[in-house]
Amino acid sequence: MSNSRHIILIIADSLRYDSVWQDGDPVVPYLKKHSTAYHQAYSAGCWTLPSTASLFTGKLPHEHGATTRSRGVNKSTTTLAESMKSKGFKTIQLTANPVTTHIFGLDRGFDRIERVWRVLNPGKIPIANILVLLGKRRIRDKFLKGDFVTGKMTEDIQAGQSWVHSFCKSQFQRAHEILQEADEKNERVFLFINLMETHFPYHIQNKFEILSHSFLEKFRELKSMFHMVNQTWLRTGKEHIKPYMLSLLRNRQKLAWKRFAKSIDEFSESVHESYPDSLYILTSDHGDNFGDEDWRYHFSNVTEAGNRVPLFIWGPNIPKDHEISTPTSIRYIPLMIEQAAKSSVDLTSLEPDARSEIPVIESFWYNKDGKTLPRYQSDQFAFIHDGHRYTEDKDGWQMYELGSQDSALVDAVPYNANPVYDLELTPTQRDFLREKYESFRGFSESIS
Hints:
By secondary structure, the chain is of the alpha/beta class. The protein is built from 19 helices and 14 strands. Strands 1, 2, 3, 4, 5, 6, 7, 8 and 9 form a nine-stranded mixed beta sheet that branches. Strands 10-11-12-13-14 form a five-stranded antiparallel beta sheet, covered by helices on one side. Strand 12 (about 390-395) and strand 13 (about 395-400) form a beta hairpin. The protein is globular, with a radius of gyration of 21 Å.
């Protein structure tokens, strides 16, 4: 069996499953026709750092250590880029999100990291876009210190360009150049691409725009974005964002995907035609949360909306126009990539029955400037089994039915026992789940 020429892993940051599969149509006809699509793929973490670290290591957040409070990836943990480099691949990261770079150790193993805000700097930032960037506390701090006023474009402000500009077409063009250069040198490339079009504040146009029309509604939309990105309810306990505004923010992502999907599909087609013997993966690091299951953001809460993600895979011997509804975790993607590096692609690496493992999801509460209210100080452990998600927080276990297209309608049922110990599982599933649960609890206590 021949191995994959190139391996391309694309992350559409924060993209929800139901933003892609609106009315059952993912609006990427070429990609869908030539790939296997997964309908029950789940991220291992709840935001970019832990979930991407799981994609880069194959480990759960408590195992790789890159969580909301403990931060960087354990130095003893081998990353996917390090592994691919050892197998002779040129490893390149093309990113629009600074979280995937050196800040938390996600740069390890990459021969080169191209930061879109440096390589494709669009120049001056319009005043309206500055207001959006100032909604982020770290950038406000830089601004007030005078960095921006004195003309010193800090890394934070430069990186913030990906919040207010759509760079995907330029990133795809650059990806083609990277692959062509590799072919000329007879190199195999592992290319990781992070795209921010579906990340807050959601690119409904090439540059940031408000979706509302009247002045008052525009103000309310901006205000809602401020509260969402700053997670103000964690320290106030107040619902600052009205339900209709949560729906509007959710619609922003849906519109962003529909606009962005055409570029994704065109890139998928051109790569498939030029490099048919390569492995191509499109997924999301996590979903986003717009009031689903009584929360307003994804940082520290397990939800169907925040953890169910789209997943498309094509490559040699992978079924075309095929759909799979078996639950899986995208943290197993490194297993598939490792296998593809030495032989043809094998999708069984994503199948729980082949591993006798259960998809597990973890979240760690966010210490917002030390002011997070006690009721939100809860690490969560969840797993997928037999059509349900079981989630434990400080109030005990809840059971959720899987598969709702509108995850806002998914209701929790109190589970008055510990399903880790009382569910009927195979011996290997039981051993796996108990080991992960108990080690998660130990890690959670160690960082409390």
